[in-house]
Amino acid sequence: MTTMNPLTQDELKTLVGQAALQYVVPGEIVGVGTGSTVNKFIDALAGMKDQIKGAVSSSVASTERLKALGIAVFDANEVESLSVYIDGADEIDGQGHMVKGGGAALTREKIVAALAARFVCIADESKLVQALGQFPLPVEVIPMAANHIARRFQAMGGQASLRLKDGQPLVTDNGQHILDVKGLSITDPLAFESQINQWPGVVTVGVFAHQKATVCLLGTAQGVKTLDYSR
Prior knowledge:
This protein is of the alpha/beta class. It is built from 6 helices and 16 strands. The chain starts with 8 loop residues before the first helix and ends with a strand.
C-alpha cells in the first residue's frame, strides 16, 4: 500500500488558484489581488486570457505579472463595477472576515474589492482562524501620523511596529508607510474596522469586514474546500 505525500503549501496554493477560474465570468473584466497565492491564479488565468476583457489589479507587482502574460490591465477608474474580485488573505474567520496586507497592497485591494459584487478568497487552510488577530494587523498610515497611531494601538493592548524594508520604512505603492500591530484579538471585525478607519492618519486598516469574502476556496489535504459566506 502506498501512502500519498501531503501536498506542500505551494501545491495547495496552485490548487486554489486553478479552482478560482470557475468564478471568472467570460467576456468581463476580473478583479485581481496580490500575493503568492494570487500569483498562482494569475498564471492559471493566462490559460483563458482570450475569454476575458482583462483585469483590474490591486498592485504594481500583479499588474506587471498580468501584462507579462498578455492580459490587459485596466485602471480602477475605467470600470463601474466588477462581477468578481479574487484575492488571498493572511487570516479568514468563520464569517468571511479577513486580515489582509501582508504584501503591503491592502489599500488598493480594498478599493478593487469595493468595486466587486463577489469577493472570492483563495487561501490554504493555515489561514482559517477562530478569531482575527494572530497575524500582525497591517495598517497603512500617513507617515507623519505613525507614532500617534502606534500609541493609540498601545492603549488598546496592541504593539505596533513600523514595517521596514532594507532597514528603511517600507513605502507602499501609494507612497505611505505600514504599521504591523501584534497582540490584538478582533472579536467584532465590523466595529473594529469602522473604529480604526476614523483615526486621523489611517489610510486603510487591514481588516476586511465591510468587504468580506463571499466565498473562500480553501486548500486542504483533502483538496479544495468551498466555504460559502453569502448566506
